[in-house]
Amino acid sequence: MVVSVADRGPRRTVSDDQEHKDGGDFVAGLAARKAAARLLAAVIDARTPLDGLTDHENGHPQYKALDLRDRGLVRAILVTALRYRMTITGLLARRLEKPLPPNATALSHILHVAAAQILFLDIPDSAAVDLAVTHAKSDPRTVRFSGLVNGVLRTLARAKETELPAALAATDEAPKWFSDRLKAAYGPEKTRQILAAHRLEAPVDFSVKADPELWAERLGGIVLPTGTIRVEKLANAVTELPGFTEGAWWVQDAAASLPARLFGDVRGLRVADLCAAPGGKTAQLVLAGAKVTAVDTSKNRLARLAQNLDRLGLSADIVQADLTKYEPKELFDAVLLDAPCSSTGTVRRHPDVPWTKTAADVEKLADLQRRLLARAVTLVKPGGRVVFSNCSLDPIEGEDLYRAFLAGTAEATNDPLRQGEIAGIDPFLTSQGTLRTTPADLDLGAPKRSGLDGFFAARMRIAG
Ligand SMILES: C[S@@+](CC[C@H](N)C(=O)[O-])C[C@H]1O[C@@H](n2cnc3c(N)ncnc32)[C@H](O)[C@@H]1O
């Protein structure tokens, strides 16, 4: 199984990389590997989300110092190293006489960065090994292990054809806390399917302003029963695709497009999109004819929301506020709360999530969501509707939270979603009348084309 890194631009050669200066010597590709190991340390040791580290404006300085092709390479290495972390750990462990001491993290990250390239990326083994050895020699924490790095990685490269299939089969790649939570919620078989889906890169979904059939053809995709366009693998960067500049569509997982549709007809209604940034659901609500107030606490994320709406030629009132303190002048006809959550439904796109979050984080985020939901229901007129959603797979943040919330409030009642009410969502409706999707859902015949982000959504009616 080899993952192409060709989308980062033309394959570079050693001479291409002469611009990188490290420790006084020019070493091709070393800066990218050092950045990859540094960022892997931030993810694994400091539990920092990968998206923030690799943000082109606010990311890690070592990442931002790289050119665009090297940034693409670093992301490819990291996504792969995290997606297959357990397989890589197992194969490295076989080659070590004894486990690395817990404080040998720098060495461990160098080995993982190189192993991801050797096992899964189309990078010559010799380049991956040599760069790892040079890297180890350049760091006082690892210099004395450079021989070990060389030996371990060379034998790994030689044995990969024979050992990799069994090593992949021996693990589900999930840290124990995560597979335990999934098994408790979904049972062993569905958990197996979800974790198998997490090993694959997600297809790319687009919400379109109009004419899905036309845009499916132009983008080389298919139209899903929900109206979203799905492209299995992009040939170009999103910004280079037809329709980007004129704002004909935006990237949004098919499951993420469902919550905003649960209101039905919103034409002329005043709708608050609480926790709105970067604005995928705001765009849907505006397009559907609502007068939208987009609220979010994050200035940076609201700037992205404004940029996104601008490109799409859509407008909304944008308010930077902490929802717990937000006091609108007037109550809204409807409110969408797409709450901050553990994001365990997005592991296909964000394989760092199981490594940066813990079971305790899930509980904490559920608590925050409970408070935000309690606030959200107070912002709606009597008889109005609230949709609560998040991209977690965990019932603690979804089904359980919602059931307990309804039991503890007289202000809102469940407004169950009905079969046949909204195009394409019937397979995902629960007996409670809520919506649940997982990466194991939406089988389109080929695993790489199938799946949805994990989402929970529910609709409430405010007492009249
Ligand atoms: C899941 S994301 C929202 C995604 C967005 N609805 C979309 O579809 O593009 C959650 C958002 O909640 C925001 N947030 C977190 N805590 C908040 C709070 N107390 N008040 C308002 N927004 C908050 C975060 O900044 C983040 O943008």
From TrEMBL:
Residues 167-463 form the SAM-dependent MTase RsmB/NOP-type domain. S-adenosyl-L-methionine binds at C275, A276, A277, P278, G279, G280, K281, D296, D322, D338. Keywords: Methyltransferase, RNA-binding, S-adenosyl-L-methionine, Transferase. Pfam families: Methyltr_RsmB-F, NusB. GO terms for molecular function: methyltransferase activity. Residues 1-20 are annotated as: Disordered. The active site is at C391. One of its GO terms (biological process) is methylation. It comes from the Bacteria. The keyword Glycoprotein does not apply. PROSITE patterns: SAM_MT_RSMB_NOP (PS51686). Its EC number is 2.1.1.-. Gene3D superfamilies: NusB-like, Vaccinia Virus protein VP39. Residues 8-20 have a biased composition (Basic and acidic residues). Belongs to the class I-like SAM-binding methyltransferase superfamily. RsmB/NOP family. This is RsmB/NOP family class I SAM-dependent RNA methyltransferase. It comes from Mesorhizobium calcicola. The lineage of its organism: Bacteria, Pseudomonadati, Pseudomonadota, Alphaproteobacteria, Hyphomicrobiales.
